[in-house]
Amino acid sequence: MDSHLRAVDQHVVPVVATVHYYGDIVRRLFIAIAITLTIVSPFVVSLLPVSAFAISLIVLALILLAGLTNPLQRWIIATDFVVSAAGVYSFVYVSATSYAAVALSNTHLAFFVASHFIAFLFAFALYYSSKSFRGLFFDLPERPEYVRRRGPE
Fold first, then answer.
1. Sign (positive/negative) of CA torsion 129, 131, 73, 152?
2. From first to last of its 153 residues, what are the pLDDT tens digits of the chain?
3. In 9-133, at which residue ranges do the beta strands (DSSP E only) sit?
4. Is residue 137 part of a domain?
5. Residue 147: CB partners within 8 Å, gap ≥ 6?
6. Does residue 38 lie in a domain region?
7. What's the number of domains the chain is made of?
C-alpha cells in the first residue's frame, strides 16, 4: 500500500496532500489575530466600533475556524477565505477611519497601530486562504483524485 493511502474498513482512502493547501499558515494567522485582539482590546475597548462581547465572539470564531481548518473539507477552506476577506475589509476600514484621531492621544496611536497590524495579518490570511481556495476549487488537474478503491492494489 502506498504511503499516502490508509486502509479503512477494506476501503483504501487517500490521505489528501494537496499541492495548493495553505491551511496550516491560515490557522497560525487566525490564532495570531485572536491573540492580538485579546491583548489589545481591553486597552482600546472605548475606541472599538463594536462591543467587547462582539470582540470576544470574533476571537472565539477565529480560534474555532483555526481548529476546524483542514484539507478534506471544502466548506472550511471557503469559510476561511470569506472570514479573511471580511477581516481585511473591517480592519482596513477601522484603520482608515481612526487615522484622524491618532494625534489626539497615545491610546489612539496604539489602536491605530494594532488595527493596522491586524489588517496586515488578515491580508496574509486572505492571500493564503485564496491560494488554498483556488487550488481546491479551480486547479483540478493538479489536485489528487478523491476516489475509493476496493480491495488490494
1. negative
2. 444 444 444 444 444 445 678 999 999 999 999 999 999 988 888 888 888 899 999 999 999 999 999 988 889 999 999 999 999 999 999 888 877 666 666 777 888 888 999 999 999 999 999 998 888 777 555 444 544 444 454
3. 11-14
4. yes
5. 14
6. no
7. 1
For 139, the domain range is: 5-18+45-150
- Give φ, ψ of 138 to 5 degrees: -120, -25
Strand partners, 11: 8, 150
Residue 37 in any domain: the answer is no
Q: Are 33 and 125 in contact (CB under 8 A)?
A: yes
Which long-range contacts (C-beta less than 8 Å, at least 24 apart) are formed by 57-61? 58/34, 59/34
What is the reported pTM?
Answer: 0.76
Residue reference for cell 496604539: 110
The three-state secondary structure class of 113 is helix
| Domain assignment present for 27 | no
Q: Residue 4 has which C-alpha cell?
A: 499516502
Which residues, including other chains, have CB under 8 Å from residue 125's CB and lie 6 or more apart?
26, 29, 30, 33, 80, 84, 87
